[in-house]
Amino acid sequence: MIEYFRCKNQSCQQYGKILEVTADVCAKSDCPHYREPIAWWLAVWERNPKLKLGAGVGGGIFLLFVILMGLGADNCNKQYTQLSNQAVSLEQRLQDLVQLPKPTFINPEQLTTQAQELQNKALALYQQIQQAMKGYDKATALALLNQLQTVLGTINNLAIPAADKVISARSSANQLLYDYQNFEGRLEGFVSQARMSGTNDCSNTGEMLLDQVKIGMRQVGDLGTKFTVPPPPPAISTAQQRISRMFGELQPQVNAMAAVDSQWITQAQDNANNQLVTNQIITQLGGNRIASYYRYKDNPQFTYDAATLGSRDEANLQQVAQVIATKYPQSRVFLFGFTDEVGDAAYNFQLSKARAEYVAGQFRLSEVFRRAQIQTEPFGFGSQLPLDTSGTDAGRARNRRVEIYVVLVTQP
Question: What is the pTM of this model?
Answer without folding.
Answer: 0.47
